[in-house]
Write a structure and sequence with these properties.
The chain is mainly alpha-helical. The protein has helices at residues 3-13, 17-37, 41-50, 69-74, 79-87, 99-120, 131-139, 149-159, 163-176, 179-182. The two termini are 28 Å apart.
Length: 184
């Protein structure tokens, strides 16, 4: 499965442009992790792009991503990537074993927090977001209350990276590199 094929699946199933942008943000973060770890960048990109492809058709914990997995199989997505997508939801019971799986879990929620921080800046530009502003908003539990901070912490520990000196800067930089695609 190529990145372009994955994007085609996303475009087929996702109509909400903000959800597409979220998946593009996760894709960028995943690509950065693939480069950091010397892993297969295409596989990381595909997992990042496809991880929420079925949210609009299965918008519940019971449905997403479990009911999306058969669709991905029909589309020719590898079991490695499907397993990573299944493992990004703690409710699925699929453990995270590989770096790919751990990276997807660690990046997913953080991209949402960073996007929200960019959107509340006067410029609404991700270029103006800094690690210190993320750290400040992190401490405000009422800010972006839907972002599961404990999952981000759990994900970075499992991945073996430091939250503030490695993970947040890497994800922020990856997202800044595609600011136009993110509308930020």
């Amino acid at each position: 499965m190529t990145r372009d094929q994955a994007l085609s699946i996303v475009r087929e199933y996702v109509k909400n442009e903000n959800l597409v942008r979220h998946m593009l943000a996760v894709e960028a973060a995943m690509a950065a992790y693939a480069q950091k770890f010397g892993e297969d960048e295409e596989a990381y990109r595909v997992a990042g792009l496809l991880h929420d492809f079925d949210w609009e058709i299965h918008p519940t914990a019971e449905g997403h991503p479990s009911l999306g997995a058969p669709i991905l199989r029909e589309k020719g997505v590898s079991e490695e990537i499907i397993r990573a997508i299944m493992s990004h939801g703690s409710h699925t019971g699929v453990s995270r074993e590989t770096k790919l799986e751990k990276a997807l879990f660690a990046c997913d929620e953080l991209t949402g927090l960073i996007t929200t921080i960019a959107l509340v800046r006067p410029s609404k530009k991700i270029a103006d977001v800094e690690v210190k502003s993320i750290k400040k908003k992190w401490k405000e539990k009422s800010f972006a209350a839907g972002v599961n901070r404990s999952e981000i912490e759990e994900g970075t520990r499992a991945l073996g990276v430091d939250l503030w000196t490695e993970h947040v800067p890497l994800v922020l930089s990856a997202m800044q590199s595609i600011a136009t695609d993110l509308g930020l």
